[in-house]
Amino acid sequence: MTVLAGGVGGAKLAHGASRVTDRVTVVVNTADDARIHGLWVSPDLDTVMYTLAGIANPTTGWGIAGETYTTLEALRRLGADTWFMLGDQDLATHLARTARLADGASLSQVTAELATALGVTARLLPATDDPLATMVDTPAGRLDFQDYFVRRKHQDDVLGVHLDGVDDARPAPGVLPALTGADVVLLAPSNPIVSVGPVLAVPGVREALRTSPARRVGVSPLIGGRAVKGPAAQMLAGLGHEVSALGVARLYVDVLDVWCIDTVDAHLAPAITDLGLTVHVTDTMMRTDHDRERLATELVDVAGR
Amino acid sequence: MTVLAGGVGGAKLAHGASRVTDRVTVVVNTADDARIHGLWVSPDLDTVMYTLAGIANPTTGWGIAGETYTTLEALRRLGADTWFMLGDQDLATHLARTARLADGASLSQVTAELATALGVTARLLPATDDPLATMVDTPAGRLDFQDYFVRRKHQDDVLGVHLDGVDDARPAPGVLPALTGADVVLLAPSNPIVSVGPVLAVPGVREALRTSPARRVGVSPLIGGRAVKGPAAQMLAGLGHEVSALGVARLYVDVLDVWCIDTVDAHLAPAITDLGLTVHVTDTMMRTDHDRERLATELVDVAGR
């Protein structure tokens, strides 16, 4: 089974999937990676990794449980910008990653090493080892993703989203086989514009998924027209998409067989069926570990039908 | 007043000097700087900086008081080498330094910024902004200084000391004027081979000190033939020098007016006088802040005679 994932929503579904089968590959967005204090930070990879390792902060969804911020406080004292929260344990991940990348290792290699060290048995793949950066066009100008998302708290209207480097990005080793060779591919309920979008935008990925013999099942990140977390709704609106589980389905219609929506959105099922997708209606909110496993089980089940 | 300093001994004397006058420049050894987890670590600069900022760990002499090691523990969990102790607060210094150097700032600039942020009023100058690295020849081969010093706990016999980059190193801005324009230059009781030695070895520095009109006063790092801290005695022995306050005086005879030795070494005074140096005998052990200030006051006093 392969899961295409962004951050928190993707991590939760990947975690559920890893409890259903031990042969899970998670292809993770890297377009919101950033250089913070000179370190290579991969927020989505880390969120998925920490979640699968069982050390994620259950309150925030990102970061490590019981995290402290001693270094960040000291950086603040030194006059550094400290709007990007980096915990002391989390910092070790970024230090190790940055040092290994500087040694010439690829992001895939480093990701595999880190995940193994943390006891993650699922295979974690960055969508690409090449530079890829989501830029957000706003009334304040074009912003780096983390500038828009974290520093400015995704308050700016989104006029456009641009992927720097996308033309030259290649799928990381293993990504295309994970899409064409899987029995089931799940599209996690992550932001379709800035999480799943950049994964699909890596040249070759969307085509591989479109033509894959795998059963392809996506989960709507919108429930009742709202994102569980993050700016997906505002982004979709800003880019002229319908802000609903139907609107998101339209973005994926060429790469999916089944679209899973929440029970509160059951009224959208006929219109989604009209798109040519099989609709699965269930409780998609993943509050507990049990929810994650139950949803993943259902998705595998519906994929098999 | 200018102080030439290495790590802990240099930091203590610089601290004493800064309590005697508010116009102190400290020229600090950078040849034991190292890349640790990809970060630029400047142990001697940081020891002096933390000491002058009043945040040094009083037990170790290096590092920050009340330090925690959360990131280092997490790095260990990730399989990284963690023999170099980096505290969580200390890490912020290295992160900020490394990021600013990557931005193109010089080590002098970064050092001034960090020291200012920590409220240090004395001027801290790296001996050079250029790459300079102490390499230690041992029966186990040529070792990076921190490999020899920290990882292998300076247990190897020292067959030779080599300064990589010394031919191309230039004194950092302000270093030569600090030597030629000062009323008093103090050579701190730091390791003569790997702390004060590299400072003097930067082309132009030794000559500037030799010809400076300043009164030049050095303090022996050896008391009763032993170093207060670190491997100075073994190194001197390994390199064929006499392991005593007299042996160290011989290394500095061209750049000093006064050599300050401990009372336990008073019997060496005639031989040191024969070298052409004025001898000052006192209690040179700096246990307390008061000791530091008292010694610095005495050195200024004897310089003025």
TrEMBL record, chains A, B:
Keywords: Magnesium, Transferase. The keyword Acetylation does not apply. It comes from the Bacteria. GO terms for molecular function: LPPG:FO 2-phospho-L-lactate transferase activity; magnesium ion binding. CDD domains: CofD_like. PANTHER family: 2-PHOSPHO-L-LACTATE TRANSFERASE (PTHR43007). This is 2-phospho-L-lactate transferase. It comes from Cellulomonas bogoriensis 69B4 = DSM 16987.
